[in-house]
Amino acid sequence: EYSGDPPEDFVYEYAKIILGVMTSSPEPHGKILLIGGGVANFTDVASTFKGLVRALNQFGPALKACGTSVWVRRGGPNYSEGLALMKRACEDIGVPAQVYGPEAHLTAIVRDALVAQPGMAKPLSELPPLVVKLPKAAAVERSAAGGGGGGAGGVV
What we know:
It is a single chain. By secondary structure, the protein is of the alpha/beta class. The chain has helices at about 10-20, 45-65, 80-95, 105-115, and strands at about 30-40, 70-75, 95-100, 140, 155. The protein has a 3-stranded parallel beta sheet, with helices on both faces. The protein has a two-stranded antiparallel ribbon with strand order 4-5. Strand 2, helix 3 (about 80-95) and strand 3 (about 95-100) form a beta-alpha-beta unit. The longest helix has 21 residues, at about 45-65. It starts with 7 loop residues before the first helix and ends with a strand.
């Protein structure tokens, strides 16, 4: 999590910590790096992604050794440039990446990332329709006080 249009160097230092922890131990099924967020109002996506790209380049061999796939979803000012930077960086270090703009739903990207990574999750069949059953509320009758027509009688 970072917000508030942080400078590139801050994002770089932050990302180094995350990638250091991520690559510190192997995982037999590989690892998924999800870089996702909403549509920013004022965060320069290209600028913050430059910090992430620097960290990805530094940790490239370790990410590749861990079998990491990168999934990105972002929108906001300069997001197209930022997404292009991320895609190019992942290609350069040899790590598979899927990059999406604000047209994609983050929840769908998480699902797709888990299904695409061998051993993480089984593919989902068509989901059954959602059925929500709510309990029926007991009706409480209130009688009008004094029968004068000015009371607040009725069913609640």
